[in-house]
């Protein structure tokens, strides 16, 4: 299903109330010397990739409850992203997982993506599952495996993913490794890390000049005792040893409870080594639930550092943004719309932080004022700014409401049937 702009006249009912709310907020912000137009433009330009694996129902290890009308081909996945993008105007990219989403006809896929205004962001390799007919097994690791043959197979796969990405116009590859151990003594930490470093260096050699390599870290899961790339420091070290095109990728769900993620972001940007960012939220583990549904203030503090870094750290490249989510209960498209909305809202709040005033207060050691400046920005209802950014681009004022009014899921079920299953996590 491909939405055409005429179908978006759901804005009519809400436009006059939006105009009042936007004018009120804009005049109050202008009185505080905030450049409202600049903020609205930044929001309009902020694009977040949707992963090809997040468009169907995920599941837990206890079960998977299918969501009807799921996309069963890469074309249908792109169409789903096209729907979200035409409503939100902030999902103009897709991140593919290989081999789940290998295009059959590259030109046709590129044309479809182009017609939907979707770019190809980072491609993701998969060395955490054994593919049918694979010679070697990843049961005991991939890039870190003690067996040279397994490592070679995993390296070759990553190189193949780069080739596929090149044909599509991607400019980066994300490596997330499941490698680790479940029991003390099972693995020699130093050997596993050295193998991983050498394997990554080998992959890096095949990286085109204008590409980036993103290295994710995660302290646990699927192994229970250790993971080879357990934290940002390990990823940072590996990226440094690979070279200047290698970067750390921060996924919000990949930290132990109470980790100060905003400080990690800040350190990496200072060193010019933050390359990618995966949004999600969690209460207990790598839950991959709706962005901002559990810890919205923590997300704001992280965004505050991202905004500071984007304004003050020219040594850090432009980031690749992606929602790394999974859906067990909600309609995946509704959930992604909610996540996009929260990301835009939180970005807008961070853009309101008066950095000059904050710096002064920090220098005066005025702790209360520092906190007040952050709270003032956080507590401002910025939704009219986000809506204005969408309106400027002919998006929906209220994407979720429009999605429901247009009966999109019902139409998808009519088109695709009830029992389709999307590939993914
Ligand atoms: C597994 O934890 C994971 O969620 C990582 O965050 C990756 O980015 C994603 O799967 C896809 O490989
Ligand atoms: Mn991730
Ligand atoms: Mn994850």
TrEMBL record:
GO terms assigned for molecular function: isomerase activity; metal ion binding
Matching PANTHER family: L-RHAMNOSE ISOMERASE
UniProt name for this protein: Putative sugar isomerase
Domain of life: Bacteria
Protein keywords: Isomerase, Manganese, Metal-binding
Lineage, uppermost ranks: Bacteria, Pseudomonadati, Bacteroidota, Flavobacteriia, Flavobacteriales
């Amino acid at each position: 299903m491909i939405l055409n702009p005429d179908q978006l006249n759901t804005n009519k009912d809400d436009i006059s109330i939006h105009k009042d709310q936007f004018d009120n907020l804009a005049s109050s912000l202008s009185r505080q010397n905030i450049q409202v137009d600049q903020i609205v433009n930044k929001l309009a330009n902020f694009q977040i990739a949707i992963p090809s694996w997040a468009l169907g129902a995920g599941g837990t290890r206890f079960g998977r409850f299918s969501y009807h009308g799921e996309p069963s081909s890469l074309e249908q996945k792109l169409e789903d992203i096209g729907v979200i993008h035409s409503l939100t105007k902030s999902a103009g990219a897709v991140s593919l997982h290989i081999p789940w989403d290998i295009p059959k006809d590259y030109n046709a896929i590129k044309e479809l993506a182009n017609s939907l205004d979707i770019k190809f962001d980072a491609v993701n390799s998969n060395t955490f599952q054994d593919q049918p007919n694979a010679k070697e097994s990843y049961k005991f690791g991939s890039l870190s495996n003690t067996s040279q043959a397994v490592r070679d197979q995993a390296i070759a796969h990553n190189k193949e993913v780069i080739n596929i990405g090149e044909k599509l116009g991607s400019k980066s590859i994300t490596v997330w490794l499941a490698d680790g151990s479940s029991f003390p003594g099972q693995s020699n930490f130093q050997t596993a890390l050295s193998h991983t470093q050498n394997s990554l260096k080998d992959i890096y050699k095949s990286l085109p000049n204008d590409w980036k390599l993103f290295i994710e870290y995660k302290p646990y899961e699927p192994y229970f005792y250790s993971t080879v790339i357990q934290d940002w420091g390990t990823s940072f070290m590996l990226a440094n040893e690979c070279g200047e095109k290698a970067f750390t990728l921060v996924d919000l769900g990949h930290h132990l409870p109470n980790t100060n993620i905003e400080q990690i972001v800040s350190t990496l940007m200072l060193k010019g080594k933050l390359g990618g960012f995966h949004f999600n939220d969690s209460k207990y583990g790598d839950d991959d639930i709706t962005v901002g549904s559990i810890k919205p203030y923590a997300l704001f503090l992280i965004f505050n550092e991202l905004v500071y870094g984007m304004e003050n750290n020219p040594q850090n490249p432009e980031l690749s943004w992606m929602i790394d989510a999974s859906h067990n209960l909600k309609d995946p498209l509704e959930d992604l719309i909610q996540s996009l909305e929260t990301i835009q809202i939180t970005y807008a709040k961070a853009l309101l932080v008066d950095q000059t005033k904050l710096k002064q207060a920090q220098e005066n050691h005025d702790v209360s004022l520092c906190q007040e400046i952050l709270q003032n920005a956080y507590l401002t209802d910025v939704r009219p700014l986000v809506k204005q950014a969408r309106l400027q681009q002919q998006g929906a004022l209220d994407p979720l409401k429009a999605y429901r009014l247009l009966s999109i899921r019902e139409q998808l079920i009519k088109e695709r049937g009830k029992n389709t299953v999307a590939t993914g996590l």
